[in-house]
Structures are given as structure tokens and as C-alpha cells.
């Protein structure tokens, strides 16, 4: 038996795994997966998803549920037909070149994924910006983390989570906001449980409209009204100022902008905060006191803050609390965003999003564009702002974007407002889908499908929530004719180069994933995330955190310990943004506030986790959860099918009674799309959700839609 050290492909905790295989070459077979005892994220533990990974790569799954060959659709009305790689690659290059020649580079868009490896991200980014000449490249991380990116940049000066997992064990107060950590990041939650067992005095505050498993574990559960987080954070800050719980010396020495924020929160008294959030004044005061007066306070936050039309402002309002109370830059203290996907961080680092450039650079900054152009050896970088996820599909629906290259994600399930997304895919002249699994909702709209290799078959790197870069390694040969994502991109790019840069040396002369990784590394030199001191060989030995510049003896596990922040003057910024209600409101026609979220045992659209029967044991199908009193008051019946209707569309699902759901609220798991709800002509959960997005982060408000519910 052989053991291959790799990383779990599910969530942003980034657990290390050992993949046990027998047989060699084509006959190799995975017989088990174990937690890597030496990986500092999980120390050998795995959750239900990680511990069943081997079942997602059995010979049967690889044969029946994977895309194994490239295929085209000769016309939109015909089925996909298998084709060889060379012909397919050339045809894609020809079609992209023709669209670019006729409509310009911005008629092409790339929609990629936080589940790609950093090497893949780099390849797509270089193709889009360096060769095609468009900033229209965005990632499904837009739905996940873009509010956290903007929050860190506005407040602290750089997109760098300042804390690390060890802070969980050193904190005296955990302030968990908008995160059901017990289900979405189970191994971190195990660490929290273990930490509290050792330190029973540790206070845990959970901010969530729903009483989740995480909330059950809290000393104080703040079940606020959906979308009212800023009113809570500003109310807590008001209390801290009034009670003298702020750290005036820290504010004076290390920050700017406090006077403006103080003026803004003057009217957000605890009673006003209580009115807006639906909480009790005493709860707000208690949370403020624990946050400010605990020796160390660490906040963990995730989609509840990020997936909001005020996502960036929610992030900065929470960071304001850390800055005002000096709860940052010390062991066990700081704002710590949890990433949903395994490599959302790598995408941020490599600039694989419309609003970013490699090495945490900014596409709106001419000097940054010139630096990247020089690094890549291209004449100039495009300067027209790129379209972010929702905008990209809206532009396609208007006919402005003619070609979409989609990789490792399933927008015909996961984007909000599915009616618009599907109209966009239908209107495109060319939809390229690069994907490992067969039969996703998006495949029905694809003109070309490209089989990608996936976990246990490919090599590269990912970065987890605590800035730790881990190697992903192959234990099996790729299934069928599937290929590594970076290699698929390289092959198309080289054909496009032949037309656009005849006779010039290739920008994509890569034979191994280490080569694009080295280019990525070079883009980080001198930047806040500098990994100039790392190499693939060092990552082979152990996962490493950034920054790790050339000559450094090690990484910085915790940032800003010297009180020097990443803004040019070294000072962090208080951001004074007022509380704003959600983009759409409940009214008599749509009286319930719907939120969506993760189940413990499923992952995203279930392409991978849906191949494992035992992961359905807890939740065999989707159900709309509502409070039993709301069910009774509306004359509904738990267990019966109900029609959920938002301003965008309907969905028919069973109803479930759940006392953890607040009054006039409803909750749906995010995982079921049309392919799982087939036969009812449904679009899946995101038929209901809304595309309104945060003006700064451009992240859509997936956590709030006004809906009605009635018996079918
Ligand atoms: Fe994988 Fe996340 Fe579970 Fe760890 S916690 S095993 S990374 S899904």
C-alpha cells in the first residue's frame, strides 16, 4: 500500500489527508483516506466529508460520474459528441479568436472557481488578462469572500487575515458572526470544543438569526433580525465608548478615522440597536463587555456577513470593534474571516478575480498593471474594469458577453436569480465548460465540455483560511482523458498565441505545475503576501504560511503584532458606514425572510459529495425550515409540499418544523439544484435568491430574499 500526502478539496479549513492506494499506474485504486497527523490545520482529524473522500474516487464513480472525454455540441439542438483534445482545443481557440476579432476582448468572459488550484488560477488569469486582453475574469469566490477581501483592505490596508488557527486555543472570547462553524468548518469547531474543554472560562458569543448547532454551544446567542449586523456592531461600539471599554492608547497610536466613526455611532444607542436588531439591550451590553474586556477576543465570521448587499460594511463594522478595543495583533485576538472554499485564498493571492491583480495588486492602479505586464512579459494589461460574477452573467443576458469559459463551478445552480443566469447561458454564442463531474446543470448549456482531472489526480497548491499553503498531490492517474486545469488552459492559450503573437516565445511554456507556481511566486515579491522564500521543495516538506519572503527564517503566523498596519502610513482605518436595510424587504405579499446555507455533510452543488450515499443519511433531500408557530399561524403542515415564491421565481419543496428558525423567517440548504429537483421543472434553490450586491465588494445578497410560502 502507498500513502500520498495531500489536502482535502472541500472547505477552507484545509485539512491534510493521507490517501492510501494499492496498485500501480492505470491499476491504482484508492482504498482509504486518513487525516494527516502532521498537518497543523487538523492534526489527523477529518470531518464526515473528508473521511469519505475515497468514496468519491472509486473506479465506479470515476467511470460513471466523471467527464472522461472532450465533447462538442455540433448545434445547440444536438447532444454533445465526443471529440479528441487536439481538434477541440483548436476549435476553442479559433472561436475565441473570431469573437475577439468581431466584438473585442471584453466579449469574452471567464468564470472560474475557488476550488481550482493556485496554478490553475494563474493560468486562467494570464490567459484572460495577458493574452485575450480582458479583465472579465471572476470566480465563484465572489459569492463567498469578496466582502472579506474589501473589509480587510479598507480597514487594515491589505487582504491578509491577521490571525491563525492557534489563536482559537489562545482566545478568551470567541465572537462568531454569521458562521455555523459546527457544520461549515467542522474541524475548526472540534478545535473550539477542545479549547473550551481546556479553558472553561472562554466565552463564546454567536451572532446568527438561526439557532444553529454552533449557537447551541454559545454562552450568548444573539439571534438578531436578518441583515441587522451593522446595527448590532455599531450598538456594541456605542456601548464600549460610553462605558469606557475602548483602548484609547491603541486608537491614538495605531489608527485613523475614529472621530468620524464615533460621531456616526452616537445615535446607535443600545436601545436603538435593540430596536433594529430585535435583541435585548442587556444582550448587546453583555456582548460588548465580553468583546472589549476579555483579555483576548477573536472573531470568526463567514457568509452571514459576506453574502450581503452591505457585505464590506458588515466586515469593516466588526473590524472597527477590534480596533477600538485593541483586540488585534495579539495571541488569541483579531478579526478572522473563514474561507468557504479550499482555495478562495489562492484565487485572491493570484488575482484571479475581476477586482484583483496578482500579488494583491489592484487593476485600477496603472503602476500595478505595469508591474504585472512586466512580470508576464506582455505589452500592457487591460485597463477597463472587469465584470464581476453577477455582472458577467447580466452582460451575457444583454448580449454583450458572447463567450463564457466556465471552470470548476456550476453557475446554472449556484448563482442567484437562476432565470437570468440561464437566459444568459442560452444567449451566449459559445459556452465552454471545464469540469470534472458529468451532468451538472451548467453542462446542459455547454457547447463544449472539457474533462478536468480533480482531487487525487492533480498536483498543485492551495491556501487555507490561515494563509497556509499546502500541496495537493496526485495518487491516481487522471480519469479517462481528463487533464489538469492549468494544462487545458495552456494548450488553448498556445494556439491563441500562435495567431496573436506569431514567432514570439510562448507565455505559457509550462510542462509542470511548478512553473506557473513560480510565476505566481514572483508576483508576490515585495508585497504583503511575499512568498519569495518558499519553493515547491519546501512545501513538499510541510505546509507553510505566508508571508515568507526570501531570507526569512519562517512565516508570520500572526500579523500586525507591532501595531504597524498595511496602509501607507502604517495606521489602520476606522470605516464609518451607516446601517442599511437589506436590498429587498418583506411585505404583505412576501412576508418571510429566507436565508440559505450549508448542511454539515454536503458540499456546494453536490457534484462530489453527492456521489457518497452515506452523506445523505442525515438529510436525504431539501426541506424548507420554519418555526412551528409560523407554520401553524399560516395554516401550513410540516411534511407537506409547499410552494415558496420570491420576486424572481418559485420552488416546491417539503416543509419542516424547526424551532431554531426565527419568527417570520425561513431557511433552505443551498445544495440542491435543478438536476436534483428534476421532473418538477424547477431551477433549484437559487430560483429564489436575489442578485442585488454590495456596491464595494460586488458580492450578492444570498442570505436574504423575501418570500411567501403556501400549500401546494
Ligand atoms: Fe475537509 Fe473541511 Fe472537513 Fe477539513 S473540515 S476534512 S477541510 S471538509
What is the chains' assembly state?
Answer: single chain
Distance between the termini: 55 Å
Bound molecules: iron/sulfur cluster
The structure class reads alpha/beta
Assigned CATH architecture of the largest domain = 3-Layer(aba) Sandwich
Q: How is the largest sheet built, in terms of strand order?
A: 5-4-16-15-14-6-7
User: What is the third-level CATH name, the topology of the largest domain?
Assistant: Rossmann fold
Average of pLDDT: 96
Q: Provide the domain count.
A: 4
Give the low-confidence spans: none
Instruction: Report the CATH C-level class of the largest domain.
Output: Alpha Beta
Radius of gyration: 24 Å
Q: Which descriptor suits the 3D outline? A: globular
Number of DSSP E strands? 26
Biggest sheet: strands, sense, closure? 7 strands, mixed
Strand content: 15-25%
Family: Belongs to the prokaryotic molybdopterin-containing oxidoreductase family. NasA/NapA/NarB subfamily.
GO molecular function: 4 iron, 4 sulfur cluster binding; metal ion binding; molybdopterin cofactor binding; oxidoreductase activity
Domain 4Fe-4S Mo/W bis-MGD-type: 1-61
Organism: Roseateles chitinivorans
Explain the overall architecture.
With 712 residues, this protein is α/β, with parallel strands linked by helices. The protein folds into 4 domains: 2-56, ADC-like domains (N-terminal domain of TfIIb); 87-129 and 353-510, Rossmann fold; 161-338, Dimethylsulfoxide Reductase, domain 2 (3-Layer(aba) Sandwich); 592-711, Barwin-like endoglucanases. It has 25 helices and 26 strands. The strands form 6 sheets. Strands 5-4-16-15-14-6-7 form a 7-stranded mixed beta sheet, with helices on both faces. A 6-stranded mixed beta sheet has the order 22-24-23-26-21-25. A 5-stranded parallel beta sheet has the order 10-9-8-12-13. The longest helix is centred in the first third of the chain and has 19 residues, at 85-103. The relative contact order is 0.16. The mean pLDDT is 96. The structure holds iron/sulfur cluster. The site of iron/sulfur cluster (SF4) has 14 residues, from helix 1 and helix 8.
Amino acid at each position: 500500500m502507498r500513502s500520498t500526502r495531500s489536502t482535502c478539496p472541500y472547505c477552507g479549513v484545509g485539512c491534510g489527508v493521507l490517501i492510501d492506494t494499492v496498485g500501480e499506474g492505470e491499476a491504482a485504486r484508492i482504498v482509504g483516506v486518513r487525516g494527516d497527523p502532521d498537518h497543523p490545520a487538523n492534526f489527523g482529524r477529518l470531518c464526515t466529508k473528508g473521511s469519505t473522500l475515497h468514496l468519491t474516487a472509486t473506479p465506479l464513480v470515476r467511470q460513471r460520474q466523471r467527464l472522461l472525454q472532450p465533447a462538442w455540441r455540433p448545434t445547440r439542438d444536438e447532444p454533445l459528441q465526443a471529440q479528441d483534445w487536439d481538434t477541440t482545443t483548436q476549435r476553442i481557440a479559433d472561436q475565441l479568436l473570431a469573437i475577439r476579432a468581431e466584438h473585442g476582448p471584453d466579449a469574452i468572459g471567464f468564470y472560474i472557481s475557488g476550488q481550482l488550484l493556485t496554478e490553475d488560477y494563474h493560468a486562467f488569469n494570464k490567459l484572460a488578462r495577458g493574452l485575450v486582453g480582458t479583465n472579465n475574469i471572476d470566480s465563484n469566490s465572489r459569492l463567498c469572500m469578496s466582502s472579506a477581501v474589501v473589509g480587510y483592505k479598507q480597514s487594515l490596508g491589505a487582504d491578509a487575515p491577521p490571525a491563525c488557527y492557534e489563536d482559537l486555543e489562545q482566545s478568551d472570547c470567541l465572537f462568531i458572526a454569521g458562521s455555523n462553524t459546527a457544520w461549515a468548518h467542522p474541524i475548526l469547531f472540534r478545535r473550539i470544543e477542545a479549547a473550551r474543554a481546556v479553558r472553561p472560562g472562554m466565552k463564546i458569543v454567536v451572532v446568527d438569526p438561526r439557532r444553529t448547532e454552533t449557537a447551541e454551544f454559545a454562552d450568548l446567542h444573539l439571534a438578531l433580525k436578518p441583515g441587522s449586523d451593522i446595527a448590532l456592531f455599531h450598538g456594541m461600539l456605542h456601548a464600549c465608548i460610553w462605558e469606557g471599554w475602548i483602548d484609547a492608547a491603541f486608537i491614538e497610536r495605531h489608527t485613523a478615522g475614529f472621530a468620524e466613526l464615533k460621531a456616526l455611532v452616537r445615535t446607535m444607542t443600545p436601545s436603538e440597536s435593540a430596536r433594529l436588531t430585535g435583541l435585548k439591550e442587556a444582550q448587546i451590553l453583555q456582548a460588548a463587555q465580553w468583546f472589549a474586556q476579555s483579555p483576548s477576543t477573536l472573531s470568526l465570521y463567514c457568509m452571514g456577513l459576506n453574502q450581503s448587499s452591505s457585505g464590506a460594511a458588515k466586515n469593516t463594522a466588526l473590524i472597527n470593534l477590534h480596533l477600538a478595543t485593541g483586540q488585534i495583533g495579539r495571541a488569541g485576538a483579531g478579526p478572522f474571516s473563514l474561507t468557504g472554499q479550499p482555495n478562495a485564498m489562492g484565487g485572491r493571492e493570484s488575482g484571479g478575480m475581476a477586482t484583483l491583480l496578482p500579488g494583491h495588486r489592484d487593476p485600477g492602479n496603472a503602476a500595478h498593471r505595469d508591474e504585472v505586464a512586466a512580470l508576464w512579459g506582455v505589452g500592457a494589461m487591460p485597463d477597463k474594469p472587469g465584470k464581476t460574477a453577477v455582472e458577467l452573467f447580466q452582460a451575457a443576458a444583454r448580449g454583450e458577453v458572447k463567450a463564457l469559459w466556465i471552470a470548476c463551478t456550476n453557475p446554472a445552480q449556484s448563482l442567484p436569480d437562476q432565470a437570468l443566469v440561464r437566459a444568459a447561458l442560452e444567449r451566449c454564442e459559445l459556452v465552454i465548460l471545464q469540469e470534472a463531474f458529468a451532468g451538472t446543470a451548467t453542462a446542459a448549456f455547454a457547447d463544449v465540455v472539457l474533462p478536468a482531472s480533480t482531487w487525487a489526480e492533480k498536483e498543485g497548491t492551495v491556501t487555507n483560511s490561515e494563509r497556509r499553503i499546502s500541496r495537493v498531490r496526485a495518487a491516481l492517474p487522471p480519469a479517462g482523458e481528463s487533464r489538469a486545469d492549468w494544462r487545458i488552459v495552456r494548450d488553448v492559450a498556445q494556439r491563441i498565441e500562435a495567431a496573436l503573437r506569431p514567432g514570439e516565445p510562448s507565455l505559457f511554456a509550462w510542462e509542470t505545475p511548478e512553473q506557473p507556481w513560480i510565476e505566481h511566486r514572483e508576483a508576490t515579491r515585495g508585497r504583503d503576501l511575499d512568498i519569495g522564500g518558499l519553493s515547491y521543495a519546501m512545501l513538499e516538506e510541510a505546509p507553510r504560511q505566508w508571508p515568507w519572503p526570501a531570507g526569512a527564517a519562517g512565516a508570520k503566523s500572526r500579523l500586525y503584532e507591532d501595531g504597524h498596519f498595511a496602509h501607507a502610513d502604517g495606521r489602520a482605518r476606522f470605516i464609518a458606514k451607516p446601517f442599511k436595510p437589506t436590498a429587498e424587504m418583506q411585505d404583505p405579499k412576501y412576508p418571510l425572510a429566507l436565508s440559505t446555507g450549508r448542511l454539515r455533510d454536503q458540499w456546494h452543488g453536490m457534484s462530489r459529495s453527492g456521489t457518497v450515499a452515506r452523506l445523505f443519511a442525515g438529510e436525504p433531500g431539501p426541506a424548507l425550515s420554519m418555526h412551528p408557530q409560523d407554520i401553524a399561524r399560516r395554516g401550513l403542515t410540516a411534511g407537506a409540499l409547499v410552494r415558496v415564491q420570491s420576486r424572481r421565481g418559485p420552488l416546491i419543496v417539503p416543509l419542516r418544523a424547526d424551532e431554531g428558525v426565527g419568527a417570520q423567517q425561513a431557511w433552505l440548504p443551498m445544495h440542491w439544484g435543478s438536476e436534483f429537483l428534476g421532473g418538477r421543472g424547477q431551477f433549484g434553490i437559487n430560483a429564489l435568491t436575489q442578485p442585488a450586491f454590495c456596491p464595494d465588494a460586488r458580492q450578492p445578497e444570498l442570505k436574504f430574499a423575501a418570500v411567501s410560502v403556501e400549500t401546494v
